[in-house]
Amino acid sequence: MPNTPTLQSFIAGRWIGSEAAAPLHSALTNAVIYHTHADKIDFDEAVTYARKTGVPALMQLNFQQRAARLKALALYLLERKEELYAISHQTGATRADSWVDIEGGTGTLFAYASMGSRELPSSNVLHEGPAMALSKNGGFAGTHILVPRGGLAVHINAFNFPIWGLLEKFAPSFLAAMPCIGKPASATSYLTEALVRMMHESGLLPHGALQLVIGSTGDLLDRLNGADVVTFTGSADTAARLRVNRNLIANSVPFTAEADSLNCAILAPDVTPDDVEFDLFVKEVAREMTGKAGQKCTAIRRIIVPEQMVDAVGTRLRERLAKVSVGDPSVEGVRMGALASRDQQRDVAERVELLARGNEVLFSARDGFKPVGEGVAEGAFFAPTLLLCRDGHRNDAVHDVEAFGPVSTIISYNGIDEALALAARGKGSLVSTLVTREPAIAAYAVPMAAASHGRVLVLDREASVESTGHGSPLPQLKHGGPGRAGGGEELGGIRAVRHFLQRAAVQGSPTMLAAVTGEYVRGAAVQEHDVHPFRKYFEDLATGDSLLTHRRTVSEADIVNFGGVSGDYFYMHFDEVAAKDTQFGQRIAHGYFVLSAAAGLFVSPAPGPVLANYGLDNLRFVAPVAIGDTIRARLTCKRKVDRNRTDDKGVGQGVVAWDVQVTNQRDELVASYDILTLVMKRA
Fold first, then answer.
1. How far apart (Å, rounded) are the C-alpha atoms in residues 136 and 650?
2. Where is the Aldehyde dehydrogenase domain positioned along the sequence (predicted)?
């Protein structure tokens, strides 16, 4: 038996693995540091456990409660991050590289916890409204809902981000009440295993919410059904093989791929070597070449530069790359670590050989490459390598071959249209960067670049101050790209949660739709009580609780006084002659006066459970209100969201959305909106 630890899979609530199998090596020294396990995994047991234990356990929580668990989990992991940093060192990552993986991963949990608490209901039905009338008199209506699928998510990840790769998929699937089975790439799976052990030890995850597979997935994909989902991050070749699995096709199992791609950076023709933007371009390319030793699916592989700027860009990049110290990240001054494995090192070398054919090598190992640190001679280090292609139309390799390491190729162009054509030769990429000073160039180029890229960064001196950079997928924005990049989408805010939910159209009466969605739907039955809705605590309110106010007749004095207070003397409110020539034929009241007057009609002024009005959504002024018109308002509890929060004094509170309809003396709708309030809890 080897003296190195054997990694374990976490299946059906227990750790499996005692017999050593494949050795896993330190990227820094090539020493064996772990083994995968030889113990066979019963994938039928894993799938059954996810369905019968994981799904019910997650469904006992609602969206808001799962968001709260994500936040608690993020805090738990952040407190123990140094344990993960110590292990991450063996993957060849610098502290900065590991920060992206470790704290980028926990940051994604925080982001989804925050988005979930703001945007998701305290139930397991997400209403995609508004409801729409399907009949003349409004008695028959329809809407859309999103609900948990009742299946599991299989997340297959690449070796380059063993923590972030799992967490960025886990967070939205957990919010969607989907238990997940994570399968990291073996080379760095020891870091993912450490993460999953922490997550399990936290006690925050319901039983069955997360399982871990070390090694092969065996027949796992053959056991999935239409309620399940598969996500994959890795090579385009592997994605192509997985997506044609017979069982996935037969059962229409959703398959989302985020594959490596030949991302590009374009230096626009308006930028000269004297511009700040020129230095920004060079700095961004160099950072993307050397960050994570170039092992990023978003790394810049093609540097598309005006022909007259090729030599200047090449010179500046060589100067920067020559200053990059490569070696053991624990050595002071080292800025680039190793590739993940010797296998990866060999693969990159083979691909560089292909790229060099017919192109010039501007910078490589021959330029004084010598990794620093003890015992690094056998490590998986690779020199930053810069190539030059002077004819990107005739050299297919630069658009087809990706060396997944610190390797990039300068490609010359003439005119912005040629630059965009070269960018599209990548056949679909995750991200592109356009560096320009001119908004007109951005306006012209971005729509065309967006057709073949999942994300486009426009970089100039203003954005550079706070830009997160070309290679940083953000939880709030979509990650993924068309064609070679996999054709899938991840992240993108709550969009990612929707990917793991099932959408259904629902038809029925407004009253039935209100019951199904948990939200008041206009036309549904309401409840009117002697107690004003604003006098009720959060727990006592029910959707549909409603108040129809008394009436108020709008006078000329109202318009004059509101104009004096607001400073709004728009001619439609004050110039009777000009107003007669408009479509209304007369002076009308300010829309915001109508809004204010409605508040005066429905607000209960005494202290009570309603703590604050903090927002207004969906405001529409539907019809004009003239002098002499009489208005009234209907206030109805539309939606309640229990965010499980307390204020500084320990008083609980929830969010209530109120539907407001303002009508005139002919019962015509004149204004419509939602008001959001914080409401105190009784308990």
1. 50
2. 26-448
- Those residues whose C-beta lies under 8 Å from the C-beta of residue 562, and which sit 6 or more positions away, are 568, 589, 590, 592, 593, 596
Tokens 């993020």, located at residue: 74
- Contacts of residue 271, defined as CB under 8 A and 6 or more positions apart, other chains included, come to 277, 278, 281, 309, 435, 436, 437
Which helix (H) or strand (E) segment holds residue 513: the answer is: helix 510-517
Catalytic status, residue 258: yes
Pairing of strands 453-459, 429-435: parallel
Q: Which of 258, 402, 490, 519 is catalytic?
A: 258
Q: Residue 566: how many CB atoms within 10 A of its CB? A: 14
Model pTM greater than 0.70? yes
Mean pLDDT in order along the chain per 10 residues (683 residues): 82 93 92 93 96 96 95 96 94 92 94 92 91 89 95 94 94 97 94 96 96 94 95 88 92 91 95 94 95 92 95 94 92 91 92 92 91 90 95 90 94 95 94 95 95 94 90 89 89 92 95 93 90 91 93 94 92 90 90 93 88 89 94 94 78 90 95 93 82
Q: Quick one: tokens of 504?
A: 């259904």
Phi-psi region of 483 (alpha: psi -120 to 50; beta: other; left: phi over 0): left
**Alpha-carbon gap, residue 63 to 175, rounded angstroms:** 6
* CA 246 to chain CA mean position, Å: 30
CA distances from 599 to 152, 242, 663 (A): 47, 58, 13
431: its two tokens: 């991200």
* Active-site position among 180, 264, 297, 389: 297
Please count the residues of the chain: 683
The full DSSP string for 310-368 is HHHHHHHHHHHHHT--BB-TTSTT--B---S-HHHHHHHHHHHHHHHTTSEEEESTTTT
Closest CA to 47 of 203, 154, 159, 170: 154
Decide if 59 contacts 147 (C-beta within 8 A).
Answer: no
Complete DSSP assignment for 449-461 = HHTSEEEEEEE-H
Classify burial at 323, counting beta carbons within 10 Å of its beta carbon; exposed 0-12, middle 13-18, buried 19 or more: exposed
Structure tokens at 67: 């968001």
Can 637 be counted among the known catalytic residues? no
Q: Which of 468, 464, 466, 495 is nearest to 479 (CA)?
A: 495
For the beta carbon of residue 377, count every other beta carbon within 10 angstroms.
10
Distances (CA, A) of 476 to 71, 387, 473: 16, 34, 9
